[in-house]
Each structure stands twice: as structure tokens, then as C-alpha cells.
Amino acid sequence: MSEITKKEEEHLSSKDYENLLDQYQFDAKEIAPGKIIKGKIIKVTSTHVLIDIGFKSEGIIPMEDFNNILDKSEIQPGDHIEAIVERSDLKEGYLVLSHKRAIAFKALINLEKAYNYQTWITGKIIEKIKNGYTVNVGINAFLPDSHADVRTVKEPEKLIGNEYKFKVIKFERQSENAVLSRKHFLQDEREKRRVRVFSQLSQGQKIEGQVKSLTNFGAFIDVGGVEGLLHISDMSWGKIHHPSEILKVGEKAEVVVLNFNEKEEKISLGYKQLTPNPWENVGEKYKIGQTIKGKVVNLA
């Protein structure tokens, strides 16, 4: 070996050593226990999921971490995943990771933000328990019965398995305790809709709504998230006995805004006003003393 080659090799070895040392210090910082890292699934077995985390060592996540996923076929090679570093197994030469803990860690951050800034968070109601429900938001949170809806929930089982948005009304980071309110979220959304709807209303305006319910005295029509009353007297120019003669629950109907009061949150609607009043020109059609034929439809 020549003197020049020997010196070049010594020089390169020294430089490579410094780079490797820097890289090791960087890697050690990046993969320290408690650190959240992103990786790509490269293999799925019956006991664990193998993750490429971009370092010399690969990571593994025990399959028990995915117990909340009923269909394990959803975990596929090539998918990207977040996990938290739990420890390194020097004997086996890999890092032990936890996807479940990473989700919980991020959930606590999201809960804290939602609580501090009074924003909402998405979660799935997973079971009915005493005085409320368990909601999965990354960790389990409590939803009291009184906060499940703006009205009393008559069939709690219909909420199970569904995702909703919630306000966080109580949060303790240390104990990982969170109390949620779907009612508060719905009330906030209702207020936003109310402001929007009333800002766009005008007397005589024609709008489309959906029939929400029928009563003996009229129909309640949803017009953009706010309900207005269509009184039975404003349904037809003729006499009807019940709103069901004109409308059905669930159907769309065009109506006219007769009056509204934003402060009292009242909207009066009309249906017969979409057609001309047949009594307005009755004097032109029939003359006093004229004999006409008619049909008896009611006896008072």
C-alpha cells in the first residue's frame, strides 16, 4: 500500500467516524423512549407488525396493540403509521413500539387543546354505562346522559358505534380524565345555523324546507336548520281538517316566509300563499242575485 493511499484511508476513516458519531447522537435523540415516530409497515405476522422507521434498527408493534381493530386485514404492508418508542431490545436488535400509546398521547394533546380553546373533538360512542356513555377519542372519555343530546335520548342503543363531535367540558391531564358534551356541540351548531338563517330571511321570500312533524294545528318545517311553523290556516284556501291532507313528514315543500322574529326565534310560514287567493276575484266571477250550482261539503 502506498503512503498516499494509506493517508487517504486514515483521513476517510477519521471523517467517517465523526459522521457516524454525529449520526448516532442524532438517532439516539430521535428514537429515545417516549418519542413519537412515523414509519411504514413492512410485514404483518400473527404476533407483531414490523415497521421501517428509517434507522438501522427496525421497530415492532405487538399485535395486542391493535385489539381495537376488529378486522386485522386493515393493517397492510405499505401503510404509514405512528408509534411511540417504548424501549430497545438490544438482544434482538429492534425497537419495541406502541401504536396504542401514540394514539393516546395525541388524544391527550387534542383534548387539552379542545378544552382550552373550546373547540370540538371527534369520538365514537362505544358503550352505554351507568349515568352515561364511554366515548373513544384515542382514550376513553365519559359522556353523561344529560349531555348526549339536546333532548332526552329515548333509545340509547342507537348512539352506540356512531361517531359524533363533542365539546370537552372537563379535562385533567394528569389523571387522563375527560368529560364530553355532545349537547353543547349541537347547541353551538344550532346557534350558528340560527344566525345564518335569520340573516338571510325576508318577508315574502320563497324557500324550500323539509317537513319535520305534523300536529293538529300545523306543520313544523326545517328551513336550513331552524324550524318554522306552517299553521293549518295557511295551508289551503279551502278548509282542511288535518295537515296530513296536504303534507307528509320527511317530504320537501316550498313555502313562503310570512313573518319572523329573530329574538323569539319564530318563523311563520305559508303554503297557500304560493297560489292566488280564489276569493279575491269572486266578485268579478259571480254577480249578486246570480243562480249557481254547488255541492254540499260540510254541515256546521
Automatic annotation (TrEMBL):
MF terms in GO: mRNA binding; structural constituent of ribosome
SMART domains in the record: S1
GO cellular component: cytosolic small ribosomal subunit
Domain S1 motif: 34-100, 118-183, 204-272
GO-annotated biological processes: translation
Keywords, ordered alphabetically: Ribonucleoprotein, Ribosomal protein
Pfam (any one): S1
InterPro entries: NA-bd_OB-fold, Ribos_protein_bS1-like, Ribosomal_protein_S1-like, S1_domain
The family this protein is said to belong to: Belongs to the bacterial ribosomal protein bS1 family.
Protein's name according to its UniProt entry: S1 motif domain-containing protein
Source organism per UniProt: marine sediment metagenome
